[in-house]
Amino acid sequence: MKYFKLKILVVLLIGFQSYSLFSQQLTPPIHNYSSTDYKAASQNWDIDVDEEGVIYAANNQGLLSFDGQTWELSPLPNGSIIRSVFVYGDKIFTGSYKEFGYWKKDNTGELYYTSLIPKLGKYAMQSEEFWEILEFNGDIYFRSFGAIYKYDNKAIKPVQNIVSNKMLIYKNKLLLAVRKKGIYFLDDNNELQKLPNQDILNDEVIVDMAIQGENLIIGTREKLFKYNWEGCTLLKDPQLLEELERSELNHVMTSGDYRILLGTVKNGIINYDETSKTYSIFNRNSGLQNNTILGFVEKHGNIWLGLDNGIDRIEIDSPVEFYTDDTGELGAVYDLVFYNDKMFLASNTGVYTFNNNQLEIIEGAEGHTWNLEILNDTLYVNHNTGTYYLLEDKLEPVETSTGSFKISDLPYSRNEYLISSYTGIRNFSRKEDSIYSLDSLNFPVKNIVFENESTLWAAHPYEGLYRVGLKNNFKDTQFIDKINIPDGGNSINTNVFIINNQVAVFNGDQWFKYNSFKDSLFVFEELQAFRKHKMLLKDLDSYWFSHTENNSLKFTNFDDNNIVVAPGNLNNRLVKNYEKILKNGDSLYYIALNDGFARLDLAKFIKNLNNVHISTPTVKGFLDIDGRHSLENYPEVPYKSSRDLNIYTSFPVSEAMGLRYRLRGEDTLSGEVKNGIINLQNLNHGDYQLQLLAVGPQAKIAKKNSFNFSINPPWYLSNIMKLVYMLIILSLVVLVYWYNQLKLRKHQRVLEEKFEKEHQERLNNLEKERLKNQITLKRKELANTTMVAAKKNEMLMEIQNELNKDKSSFPNQFKMKHILNKINRAIKNKDEWQVFETNFNELHQDFFKDILDSYPHLTSKDLKLCSYLKMNLTSKEIAPLMGISVRGVEVHRYRLRKKMDLDKKENLTNFLIKNF
What we know:
Largest sheet: 5 strands, antiparallel
Strand content: 35-45%
GO biological process, one term: regulation of DNA-templated transcription
Helix content: 10-25%
Number of strands: 66
GO molecular function, one term: DNA binding
Protein name: Regulatory protein, luxR family
Strand order of the largest sheet: 1-34-33-32-31
Organism: Salegentibacter salegens
Number of helices: 12
Pfam families: GerE
Shape: elongated
């Protein structure tokens, strides 16, 4: 019987637990970086940060670095585990087993390691691991569990062979926590001197120390002490000491005058406030990956934790705190309200209460829940199975015929409501306890707003908006008009609101307002600056909006007050398309998330904006297809290597919303830097400037940095080739000039020759003409002379004939004879022939020679006849010249033909003219 009762008790306990998830406090943002994220070993023994905010962790596989964009692992040459890391200037010192040294970036941005062990000289190091490194008076000190070594930038010298757990600089002294002997410091001779007034620490094993103002906070495994030169006291906080006893202290860090952060082995971080004597714990239940804190460091309000499994970051003073359900049992939260001093959450798994950090599901509220609404002091629940109201921590049904999205009160009616359901709109009267369906409205409605007392707007989940007129006490419809979105706008997820008594419609991109006179929608000009911003909440004279693309939130009064809550501030956990924000108090806002909710202190958020830190983006690597380039000078990339450029950026974690780039030069590009890499392909040759733009928390460019590089032209456009081209062009110009000159001279010569020829021809023609004229003249003269001679001879012959007729009658015969002889001599005057021959030869050179060459047997008389025939004289004209009769001429011609053996048909005159 007892065993049966025990079984019943166990069953009841299990049943009760099904309604209670777990108790968890609200925590600041915690960011996890697992070994799969940084691709190295899980254990991180120490962690440090440089001035720019780059994180360095001592990992089991080497030195791990994170610049806000990418993780990089740099193994030691011997591959051993790194136990400690310390950043000093541009060097990162690390310690491991029988090895310590420093890392430094070369001119291309890559880390390289320099071991300092060779500087030990002949000193024989024991089997030591180096767990701590710090700087004191410009020297670097390395601590193992058995010795202290000093590096003075020249050599390594052993300082003390002593077992110590911690080093610290306090009041310009190097302190050493000597195991079970208290705290000592090194004097000017590197001798150990014990701090005064610390007897309480005798036999205590000190694990860590930290400085808080003028005091020294000292931690053992289970206790905390506060020391100054006057003495040492135990922090007597029973609850804290009890917690330390359970958690086992490992590290101590102070922040401000009253906060102490305690890293434990078993329970994560203890955040202790000395003023209020209160503390909070951040462990695996709060979101840490592991409860064992191996090292931590603070930078710009971020606490970086080196864990036994991973690396975490806590925004310790964030104005945003989270409740996170890591079990997945809560699911995505769609709505939240405060009712009867309790917080209620509506999620895809049911309705829960959150009270005193305890989350508990309401009985009968399992299932997808869309909305919580408080109307007339009653909490209503719009559920996947119907509509309910809360009664004594239990849901009671209003109606369960279909699921519902929202419930709204009717204007001017205190106890009547309209329920927007999966199948239409229902009129619910609380007073009469009755429900009426608007039969003519039979499509799903997710939300309604009233334009006036009898007209409402209904938002369909998929098909847009309807304007509905009501009658009969809101139990029937007068008209149902489909509203068209201008310019073919999207209808899915269209929302309708009342802003300043104006019906406003948002379709995911653009805002519209309803013009009742024209019965249509027009662009809402006053909200043009809020495109892609959906309204979530009206808060007095201000409004909350959510950005439909990047999931940021904006708080605005439409004037000078515009506050942006970046997606990163909410860990990118808003419920897309179902964003919800609730005000509770003067400055506290609760925001629904996909695995819990966030609490935003807006006043603190705005105050922090004045001290917000934005890290400076830089270029840490510049690579072409052939390798890395130096970052010290202006990189010049060969054209053949520039087809694919990768630029690696460093942008340490800060309050920035993102990093953008803008490339200026021969090509102009811009975009968002993703994963720390900017890939540029097929750029034209020329000079470029890459601008890195850090986007601040208010979506404005907060910081800029630039990086210049150039792409050399291809070989055929290089300076040498340009010189060659210039020489070639110059040579071509010279060649063309020379050729043109040559051509010109040739043309000139041709012209001169032509001119000379033409001139000569003109001269020749003139000479020929002159000769022709002269010949013509001579011919005329010859002809005239011949004709004169012929006439003279003809007259003489006539006289001779007359005399011969009267010869007998002449008294003096002797004188007659003498006269006849004189006439005969005159007729046959040789001088006249010589003159004729001379003149004839001038006209017809070589005539006699040529004819004699052809007919050598011709006589002088024959030649004389030929000459007269050549002159085309008739026999009648020839006869007087030869002093013979015409008959004699004919006979002579006949004989001449015979001598020339001419054909009878051949004309002698033509023959002589043509051939001679």
